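[09:14] KT: can someone run the structure on this one? pasting the chain below
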Amino acid sequence: MTAQYASIIDVRRIPHHKRHALIFGTFDALPDGEALQLINDHDPKPLYYQLEERAADAFEWTYLEAGPSQWRVQIAKRDGAFGHDAGDSCCSGGSCGG
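[09:31] RB: done, structure tokens below
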């Protein structure tokens, strides 16, 4: 993985209640093989566990900087992690009710 990022998210300036939704949305929109960089003022380990629950085999988590005042994490979407684009799903953006 190169130092190029599809997105850099500095969550220090984002209200707490909006952070994870923004990060998940950005990750979901990443093309396979691309990465985002997350910047935070504390260890985002709870986010790691949430991503692991959502998509355990679909991402790679790499600490680029680990405190004490700033954490930077590279979150990469693995190639072929989902097998298809979310847009191909019948549930994409709607509900599956048949």
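[09:33] KT: thanks! Residues 7-80 form a domain with the Translation Initiation Factor IF3 fold (CATH 3.30.110.40).
[09:34] RB: yep, looked fine to me
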